[in-house]
């Protein structure tokens, strides 16, 4: 009897299916199933205790949530890029808004080197809602009550980052060995290119920009052990590719909607299972999903 493939993903069925509905605690069923598993399929957003259980089992698992659970958010992403030695915009980290404004106001050389205006990013939030372009310390202080420094799955604080006017914003969505690329163009008088901020999605762009963005995202993927992520890459006016952020729960619209994304996800999981020497047909769409 082959060892089972265990699925915690609500859209995928395998030999054993265990859902964490309503944040139920892990129990003996989970320990027994993962302990005998040939492979474990985790949900796209994974709890820390389930990740620990998967690690303890010794079985391969997909996706790997290690970065999401330790370096999520703007501050965590910055630390990851810095520690891995990967290119990113010049960035400074601060514990709170006042310390950042005070450092800028005092004329600290490292802050002055960022130039003005600069980009202020709170640790938490997404879809561009916690990102601001500010011209001076007073404008930065004016973000009190708006800029969120707390992050649920990563370190809190904020970053000040060099602004690159005229840069190109590209999203590289990684699904195991596949990469889907699209450009995001900001609307007039808006520096953020996020679709939720009125940005426009463009599927085709210059091949040299595509190659630079995918190449940098693949470097991050290999260095950080990522297999599911939306990686935001900036191509500066000088043609340099820089890492902006990692998104672990990204929108489906750019990929054709929920059902298209799940179909792509299933195919990626099957390719991953084949790489583990397991029969990909043992995983199929959940009856109430795809």
Written account of the structure:
Pfam families: RimK. It comes from Desulfoferula mesophila. Keywords: ATP-binding, Nucleotide-binding. This is ATP-grasp domain-containing protein. InterPro entries: ATP-grasp, ATP-grasp_RimK-type. The protein contains nine helices and 15 strands. With 290 residues, the chain is α+β, with helices and mostly antiparallel strands. 39% of the residues are buried. A hairpin with a 2-residue loop joins β10 and β11 (178-185). The model has no long low-confidence stretch (mean pLDDT 91). The strands form four sheets. A five-stranded antiparallel β-sheet has the order 12-11-10-13-14. Strands 3-1-4-5 form a four-stranded parallel β-sheet, with helices on one face. The chain folds into three domains: 5-65 and 259-285, no CATH class; 73-163, 2-Layer Sandwich (Dna Ligase, domain 1), CATH 3.30.1490; 166-247, ATP-grasp fold, B domain (D-amino Acid Aminotransferase, Chain A, domain 1). 31% of the residues lie in helices and 23% in strands. The chain has helices at 28-35, 48-57, 66-70, 73-84, 97-105, 109-112, 137-141, 207-224, 258-275; strands spanning 5-7, 12-13, 16-17, 39-41, 61-62, 91-94, 118-122, 131-134, 158-162, 168-175, 178-185, 200-202, 228-235, 241-247, 284-285. The longest helix has 18 residues, at 207-224.
Low-confidence stretches: none
Tell me the fraction of residues in β-strands, as a range.
15-25%
The Rg value, from CA coordinates, equals 21 Å
Strand/helix succession: EEEHEHEHHEHHEEHEEEEHEEHE
The rounded distance between the terminal residues' Cα atoms is 29 Å
Shape: globular
Number of domains in the coordinates?
A: 3
Largest sheet: 5 strands, antiparallel
- The count of DSSP E runs of length 2 or more, i.e. the number of strands, is 15
Under CATH, the homologous superfamily of the largest domain reads: ATP-grasp fold, A domain
